[in-house]
């Protein structure tokens, strides 16, 4: 799906952005007919209120969009995403005072409001096009929107059409588009290449497990992204209930997120040496399933006691993180739909992250605020380390007790990263449960725009 801006401002109609406190002064400068019309239809500039303005011939000369109050706008984001569905087709310009960050958010909100998942039903809606607001880099916004659309498409596709092979193809398509190199280790070759936990998790499925390894860029700092690619999660022999299995097509949301972020980075031609690692598996049930109480030996050599086969994401990530760590990247980021505990802690709208580096955490928080992509740091509480040490093996994949599940999972992953100087793990949800402006119900990227905004500072990239 192409999410693009209009090019010709001369033929575009104006969309006036008016706050509730500014409505009277704005109306004072309008023709009497406009004032009478807006009064008659009850326009009060409440946040998200849209009203077309008629011309003398009964057509549409423009429209007005209610901006509410600053307090209203602070309670959410992408409010301008409500406008396109309420406007007639054609090209539009934004008229009103916006600072640089607000204008960029408005432009992205408009593009993302045009996203539709139509692979199986329906056709894309004809969305009014926006002329790029002054001071906004339209090319960058389009690159970000395209990366987000890729993430959404991958998550929204059901597992019947998005298994490990199809996820590999999606990565290959991105690699071809931007001239990246890619290698894939599949099936029993994972054992020979020393990825035993990826193999163990995926071996029960007839859809062979694999490790996808993409590289792009020849100069600059090393940035490695690792995404959990569990294309469907039954829970394995620790079988999920039907209700818990219902959204498990999104369990590859971490892989979808890093692929979307990688696409943004490559489209923006950032001067980095990018590596993307995706362990892609289906956690299925068969005679070949790995079992509770099995002890697996990881790529790093650490042994892991399996106390719940439904805690499989950290196993496949562990082998991929161990590989990433061997190269000592300047920044290592993993993304995964890893724990329900993270959702209990912060809900579905916030992407929690873990890092031991305070400066990295502060930079990510700043980037998140700048682009309205909310993240929240959760603690790597070292006194909880004994919870992931079962005694019969080096590590426990599912500590008993039910406490601090997101933290113990993050502590588990950190055991496989020793040499990368800075490591950040995101425990995302990857799903919009209720439609919101520019975010229809379904798959969604989380944390990716925050990371993108923070990268120049994190990696000391040229402005």
Automatic annotation (TrEMBL):
Transmembrane residue ranges: none
Domain of life: Bacteria
Gene3D superfamilies: Leucine Aminopeptidase, subunit E, domain 1 (3.40.220.10), Zn peptidases (3.40.630.10)
Record-annotated Cytosol aminopeptidase domain positions: 308-315
UniProt xrefs under CDD domains: Peptidase_M17
One Pfam family it belongs to: Peptidase_M17_N_1
Keywords on record: Aminopeptidase, Hydrolase, Manganese, Protease
Cross-referenced InterPro entries: Leucine_aapep/pepB (IPR011356), Macro_dom-like (IPR043472), Peptidase_M17_C (IPR000819), Peptidase_M17_N_1 (IPR048816)
Keyword Transmembrane helix carried by entry: no
An annotated Gene Ontology molecular function: aminopeptidase activity
PANTHER family: LEUCINE AMINOPEPTIDASE-RELATED, PEPTIDASE B
Family: Belongs to the peptidase M17 family.
Full protein name: Leucyl aminopeptidase family protein
Native source organism of the sequence: Meridianimarinicoccus marinus
């Amino acid at each position: 799906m192409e999410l693009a801006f209009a090019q010709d401002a001369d033929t575009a109609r104006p969309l006036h952005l008016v706050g509730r406190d500014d409505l009277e002064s704005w109306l004072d400068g309008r023709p009497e007919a406009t004032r009478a019309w807006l009064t008659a239809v009850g326009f009060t500039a409440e946040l998200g209120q849209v009203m077309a303005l008629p011309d003398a011939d009964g057509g549409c000369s423009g429209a007005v969009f209610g901006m509410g109050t600053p307090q209203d706008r602070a309670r959410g984001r992408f409010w301008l995403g409500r406008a396109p569905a309420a406007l007639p087709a054609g090209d539009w310009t934004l008229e009103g005072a916006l600072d640089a960050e607000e204008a960029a958010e408005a432009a992205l909100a408009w593009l993302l409001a045009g996203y539709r998942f139509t692979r199986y039903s329906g056709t894309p809606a004809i969305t009014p096009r926006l002329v790029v607001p002054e001071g906004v880099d339209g090319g960058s916004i389009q690159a970000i929107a395209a990366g987000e659309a890729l993430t959404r498409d991958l998550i929204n596709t059901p597992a019947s059409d998005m298994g490990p092979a199809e996820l590999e193809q999606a990565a290959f398509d991105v690699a071809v588009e931007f001239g990246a190199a890619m290698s894939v280790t599949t099936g029993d070759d994972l054992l020979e290449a020393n990825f035993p936990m990826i193999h163990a998790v995926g071996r029960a499925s007839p859809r062979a497990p694999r490790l996808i390894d993409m590289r792009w860029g020849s100069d600059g700092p090393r940035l490695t992204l690792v995404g959990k690619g569990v294309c469907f999660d039954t829970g394995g022999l620790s079988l999920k209930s039907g209700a818990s299995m219902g959204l498990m097509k999104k369990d590859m949301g971490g892989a979808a997120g890093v692929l979307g972020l990688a696409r943004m980075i490559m489209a923006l031609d950032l001067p980095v040496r990018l590596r993307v690692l995706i362990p892609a598996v289906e956690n299925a049930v068969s005679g070949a399933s790995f079992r509770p109480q099995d002890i697996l030996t990881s790529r790093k050599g650490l042994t892991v006691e399996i106390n719940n086969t439904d805690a499989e994401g950290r196993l496949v990530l562990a082998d991929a993180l161990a590989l990433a760590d061997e190269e000592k990247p300047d920044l290592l980021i993993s993304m995964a739909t890893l724990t329900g505990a993270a959702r209990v802690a912060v809900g579905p709208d916030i992407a929690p992250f873990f890092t031991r580096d305070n400066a990295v955490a502060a930079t990510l928080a700043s980037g998140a605020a700048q682009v309205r992509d909310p993240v929240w740091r959760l603690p790597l509480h070292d006194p909880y380390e004994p919870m992931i040490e079962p005694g019969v093996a080096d590590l426990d994949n599912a500590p008993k007790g039910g406490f601090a599940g997101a933290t113990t999972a993050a502590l588990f992953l950190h055991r496989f990263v020793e040499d990368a100087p800075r490591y950040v793990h995101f425990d995302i949800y990857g799903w919009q449960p209720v439609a919101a402006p520019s975010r229809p119900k379904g798959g969604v990227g989380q944390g990716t725009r925050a990371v993108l905004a923070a990268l120049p500072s994190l990696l000391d990239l040229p402005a």
